[in-house]
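REQUEST FORM: STRUCTURE PREDICTION
Request ID: SP-0412
Submitted by: Lab K.M.
Chain count: 1
Length (residues): 142
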Amino acid sequence: MTDATTYRTRWADMDPNGHMRHSAYADYAADQRLVLLAAWGYDIKEFARLRLGPILFREETIFLKEVHIGEEIRVNSRLRTVNDDGTRWSITHTIYKADGRVAATVAVDGAWLDLDRRKLITPPAELSEAFRNLPIYEAPVR
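STATUS: Completed
RESULT:
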């Protein structure tokens, strides 16, 4: 299982000021969540088969250091909370520059949606357990 993924920033990630646009941080965090879920056996095809999908209620980004085009960044996923039945969870993604400095944190609160009924549901037990086994979030030293 991988709880961190390394990326190289692209032209499409940049804003007119020459640094990574605000929404690109959220895009990398979302991609890292999909990498993590797939590593647990819950890729897009499995979610479609189960008629289940993750949804977000809140997303908050704190920007600390600029990221520029072509930079290598590493994005991890750390658990903040998960309730007993796994229906609701909170994850913080930390985005690191290649030199190890924290560029940003992206905190999300989510749950699981039944794609047919459009209602919140309890996920499979294995998925809940995988969330519980994520490393715990520790705020970076600034």
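NOTES: The helical segments are 22-39, 44-50, 125-132.
Reviewed by: T.R.
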